[in-house]
Design a protein that fits this description.
The protein has about 110 residues and is an alpha/beta fold. About 15% of the residues lie in helices and about 30% in strands. The protein has a six-stranded mixed sheet with strand order 4-3-2-1-6-8.
Length: about 110
């Protein structure tokens, strides 16, 4: 588990391409199923960003319902260098760096 006993997270997946963050829970869960070929109910975090990388949306299912988290940078943008057109899995350490505004690179490629 990555987060804690209160919020058990198996994996953290990040969409390498920007998306329309006007989508809500149903829209993002549909992307997880149709484009990522993954199960949105698997107790993993699914991270999406906008074109300017100034915002992140995180979708998570905890066993009883969905969480939809939004983080907006006051200044600048989220920084990562991932050479992929696919979804990638990142570590808990990379996730912590990302949400605090530090640069990350790499990630394990998720092949659909």
């Amino acid at each position: 588990m990555i987060m804690s006993e209160a919020i058990p997270v198996k994996h953290i997946y990040m969409a390498s391409r920007p998306d329309d963050l006007r989508k809500g829970i149903n829209g993002l869960a549909s992307i997880v199923q149709s484009l990522f070929n993954m199960d949105p109910y698997e107790h993993s975090l699914f991270i999406f960003t906008n074109n300017s990388r100034s915002r992140l949306k995180i979708l998570y299912y905890d066993g009883t319902g969905y969480w939809l988290l939004l983080k907006r940078m006051d200044e600048g943008h989220f920084k990562w260098r991932i050479e992929s057109s696919d979804t990638v899995m990142i570590s808990g350490k990379q996730f912590a760096r990302l949400i605090h505004g530090f640069s990350i690179s790499g990630g394990s490629h998720r092949f659909s």
